[in-house]
């Protein structure tokens, strides 16, 4: 086999890849050395903006297979038949640190699934936690600023982390979750995934349901203690990446079973708490888990940058039969992601193979045109306006999902008041579900962070939240913080 020739970007053969061209032996470089200039210039442009959150992540391909009939609740085509398989790409991530951060840290994990369905790509962009810290998207940039590196010290600051939570009583449930045993997964394979938000399903008759998604790991949930994580993060900062990559290379394919909780739309208004509040779970006794199918990951990407770094997931990518609920957080996310993709990857990011809709060979079928890096040819006589008289693509007249009921006046309202909308009762229920050993570890983890905070008023505000969740919980955290601060 003849050896392939090294070329410049324009395809011309390169004569020497070891020595730059110089004016005479030992002389200065020549501007005419196209290969050198191009190589240095291209290298300078290798990095693109990292994700503002979830920068550090790992991805893999696989499939989703339907195991149970859900056609009574959604007419989504990829869920239409038991046994139906749909290709997927999944990206897992940590949230707060920048690219290059360690994997084994106490932080939620992203769990983003792209289903390449025959009716368009469906993105379910969730976390490994069923709830979240806040319930209004207006607070998201402030929240993230408080958790990422401080602009002055350049590192995560307990003062900022806990100051935000001091002002966010609604975070108490998620803080309890994060500081508990599941706060540091042993690997991406050993954690559950949740859609977290409430979404809407619509069946063929147009009936609407509200649903919550749960991916349960078939590897079993395994977590790390704070001490184990600190050691592992030092030894192998890429521990989650190593684990996922190697498991798939060895043929040990991780899988998750998907369940949903289903609430008939008519029950939402009178439920005892706001069912669209992202800081709360729906008790399984009210809405039991129903099995839907199995997610399997069996192929590693060939190129991490091309396929994982450039992957673009958006909660706004729905398919017929699935839509948003009125959850304010979800509504905010419907804007944020595609906007981030246009900034991070450009307007033509859906032309990249990992993002392109497999339902429409050659890319989206619409009248969007041009922009940086446009490589699709909707050319020749294809018109770039609509309506037209030339057989261009046309609308279906069929909305993807049922309409949402609205009432009242515009304004900056607090969430609608249901009978039990307080911020603490589910945090208390989670605490009371824990064994004595789990409670001790939870209290130690919280105290370890809170005791580093420099302001007493910030500590007191946080303690008040744990007291409100459960008096014993509050008392134990308070004692542990005071003991550490007296040391
Ligand atoms: C990534 C915004 C809440 C899960 C991102 C990105 C943005 C963002 C801008 C980067 C996207 C990119 O550059 O590709 C927001 C806003 C939120 C919010 C404004 C609240 C209003 C949430 C919640 C969850 C979540 C509640 C989970 C339930 C994720 C995941 C990623 C991500 C998994 C990484 C996706 C990937 O792997 O590419 N978020 N986020 N986010 N977010 Fe959120």
Key descriptive features of the protein:
single chain, alpha+beta, Cytochrome C Oxidase, Chain J, Catalase HpII,  Chain A, domain 1, 3 domains, 10 strands, 16% strand, binds protoporphyrin IX containing FE
What compounds are bound to the protein? protoporphyrin IX containing FE
Low-confidence runs:
none
Radius of gyration equals: 25 Å
| Count of folded domains | 3
Number of strands: 10
Would you tell me the structural class of the helices and strands? alpha+beta
Average of per-residue pLDDT values: 96
CATH class of the largest domain: Mainly Beta
> What is the distance, rounded to the nearest whole angstrom, between the alpha carbons of the first and last residues?
71 Å
Helical run tally = 12
Oligomerization state of this entry?
Answer: single chain
Q: What is the CATH third-level topology name of the largest domain?
A: Catalase HpII,  Chain A, domain 1
Beta strand %: 15-25%
Name of the CATH architecture of the largest domain? Beta Barrel
Helical residue percent band: 25-40%
Q: Rough shape?
A: globular
Can you identify the CATH superfamily of the largest domain? Catalase core domain
Would you list the SSEs in sequence order as H and E? Answer: HEEEEHHHEEEHHEEHEHHHHH
Sketch the major β-sheet: 10 strands, antiparallel
């Amino acid at each position: 086999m003849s050896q392939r020739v090294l070329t410049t970007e324009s395809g011309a053969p390169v004569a020497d890849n070891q020595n730059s061209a110089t004016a005479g032996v030992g002389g200065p470089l020549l501007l005419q050395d196209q290969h050198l200039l191009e190589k240095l210039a291209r290298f300078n442009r290798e990095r693109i903006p990292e994700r503002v959150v979830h920068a550090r992540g790992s991805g893999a391909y696989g499939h989703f297979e339907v195991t149970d009939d859900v056609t009574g609740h959604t007419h989504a085509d990829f869920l239409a038949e038991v046994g139906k398989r749909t290709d997927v790409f999944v990206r897992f991530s940590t949230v707060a640190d920048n690219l290059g951060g360690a994997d084994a840290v106490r932080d939620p994990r992203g769990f983003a699934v792209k289903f390449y369905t025959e009716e368009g790509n469906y993105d379910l962009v969730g976390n490994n936690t069923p709830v979240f810290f806040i319930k209004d998207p207006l607070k998201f940039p402030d929240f993230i600023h408080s958790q990422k590196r401080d602009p002055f010290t350049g590192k995560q600051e307990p003062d900022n982390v806990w100051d935000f939570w001091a002002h966010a009583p609604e975070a108490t449930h998620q803080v309890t979750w994060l500081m508990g045993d599941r706060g540091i997964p042993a690997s991406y394979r050993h954690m559950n995934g949740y859609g977290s938000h409430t979404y809407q399903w619509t069946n063929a008759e147009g009936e609407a349901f509200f649903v919550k998604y749960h991916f349960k790991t078939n590897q079993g949930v395994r977590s790390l203690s704070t001490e184990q994580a600190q050691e592992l993060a030092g030894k192998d900062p890429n521990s989650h990446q190593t684990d996922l990559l190697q498991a798939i290379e060895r043929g040990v394919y991780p899988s998750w079973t998907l369940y949903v909780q289903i609430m008939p739309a008519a029950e939402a208004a009178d439920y005892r708490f706001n069912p669209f509040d992202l800081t709360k779970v729906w008790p399984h006794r009210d809405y039991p888990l129903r099995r839907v199918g199995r997610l399997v990951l069996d192929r590693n990407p060939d190129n991490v940058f091309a396929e994982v770094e450039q992957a673009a997931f958006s909660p706004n990518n729905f398919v017929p039969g699935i839509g948003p609920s009125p959850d304010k957080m979800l509504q905010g996310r419907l804007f944020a992601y595609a906007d981030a993709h246009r900034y991070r990857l450009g307007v033509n990011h859906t032309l990249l193979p990992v993002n392109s809709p497999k339902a429409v060979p050659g890319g989206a079928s619409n009248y969007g045109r041009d922009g940086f890096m446009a490589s699709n040819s909707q050319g020749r006589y294809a018109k770039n306006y609509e309506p037209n008289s030339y057989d261009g693509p046309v609308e279906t007249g069929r909305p993807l999902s049922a309409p949402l009921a609205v009432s009242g006046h515009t304004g900056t309202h607090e969430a609608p008041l249901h009978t039990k909308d307080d911020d603490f009762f589910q945090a208390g229920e989670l605490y009371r579900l824990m064994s004595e050993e789990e409670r001790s570890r939870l209290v130690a983890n919280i105290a370890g962070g809170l005791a580093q905070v420099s302001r007493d008023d910030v500590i007191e505000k946080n303690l008040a939240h744990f007291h409100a969740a459960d008096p014993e919980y509050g008392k134990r955290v308070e004692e542990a913080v005071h003991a550490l601060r007296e040391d």
